[in-house]
Specification:
2 copies of one chain form a homodimer. Chain A has 10 helices and 6 strands. Chain A is an alpha/beta fold and 206 residues long. In chain A, 55% of the residues lie in helices and 14% in strands. The first copy, chain A, binds a DNA duplex (30 and 30 nucleotides) through helix 7 and helix 9.
Chain lengths: 206, 206
DNA sequence: CTTCCCCCTGTCCGTTCGGACAGGTCCATC
DNA sequence: GATGGACCTGTCCGAACGGACAGGGGGAAG
């Protein structure tokens, strides 16, 4: 009997998961929450074997929630079930300790397979996700990680501000703004600021 | 007894909706489909009173599916239940004939309310959605609709192409490209191409 | 203490943008 | 046949952009 905690802010999805998991005699849902904050005390008190976690949550971010949940109950194995499939999200979740990653749209049998896999000490990545992870380890890591300052600059660029305006806003020189933008373009592989905004947007960096 | 057809490509959401709707004695689910193509014959054969429709579907787009479903069974009232809340999606769905619009995250009672409302000949818009619709009718129409050509140009801009490159790609003059871009900036209310890309991206125009 | 990373600054220069002026054709609707 | 929308083109010009050169300071980790 695998004890499961469901964390999803959509009532429909949450109730659907609870109902269908309960149908399977090898699973029992010991708790359901709509936010990471609500899930933490449940993880402590209910001692679930597996936590099914959505990444898009109100309040605390899903990625941050993973270590917090594991800290609350170290035996728990976390399986992500979300609509997001950007590299940042996927790799962030894996690095934070998720043992499974499913995309919404996954069939019920696949969810069951993933739960069994991680409960048995293994891991389960949906094929599309597995591909991303493999690409990450095989490629020496194309620096997609922008520094805090670079993200600040990029957000202002996306807001339509000119270099001069950004300089004023951040209290730095226009020259420094140009420097940051050059770095951003290199890291993202963009030709100019417009493409940088497009790439950042589709990778969820804004 | 309100007859309902559920259309959603996520098995979890679909099953969750079916299960919880069936719990309510005033509803009966007469069919469930994962795509518009599968839903059309069901709409014809099952004659549902209300169709719960997700907008993100494989194959035929959800917005296009609305008139098709209504054509298949004119008595049906369509309620949208989706994660998208961009102006384009919302207004597109309403214009296409949707009578209700709910966001994923809506509670089960709210979904029930919406179904009863549209079945009674009324309509039901979640408050956030209602705000968008009101803004649309009150404001004399801020032209958010880009022409085909403008979208073409904007996509190339987002791809990092310069005006000269766009001109070559579209076999027009660089001057004409500038003309289109000026129009795009005005329509989107952007200061420059970078912001235009950001706005277009978050409104789902790319 | 050295190394590495993030952050900052400077000059020079060719290219690109975007606004403001003004004009044309094609096509569907009325 | 007129009207309006989408699409196209032209010149001029100041401002903005992005690359290339080269350099300094502070904090964290080894």
């Amino acid at each position: 009997m695998i004890r499961i905690l469901v964390v999803d802010d959509h009532p429909v999805v949450r109730e659907g998961l609870v109902a269908t998991l309960e149908d399977d005699p090898e699973f029992t849902v010991v708790g359901a929450a709509g936010s990471a904050e609500d899930a933490l005390p449940l993880a402590r008190s209910q001692q679930p074997d597996v936590i099914l976690l959505d990444l898009e949550l109100p309040g605390m971010d899903g990625i941050q929630a993973i270590p917090a949940l594991v800290a609350a109950h170290p035996e728990a194995r976390v399986v992500i079930l979300t609509a997001y499939d950007t590299d940042e999200r996927v790799l962030g979740a894996i690095r934070s300790g998720a043992k499974g990653y499913l995309l919404k749209g996954a069939g019920l049998e696949e969810i069951a397979r993933a739960i069994r896999a991680v409960h048995g000490g293994g891991s389960y990545l949906e094929s599309r996700i597995a591909g991303k992870v493999l690409a990450e380890v095989s490629a020496p890591r194309r620096a997609t990680t922008l520094t805090r300052r670079e993200r600040e600059v990029l957000k202002l660029v996306a807001g339509g501000r000119s270099n001069k305006q950004i300089a004023r806003a951040l209290k730095i020189t226009e020259r420094t703004v140009k420097f940051h933008i050059t770095t951003i373009l290199n890291k993202l592989g963009a030709e100019n600021r417009a493409q940088a905004v497009a790439l950042a947007s589709q990778r969820g960096l804004l």
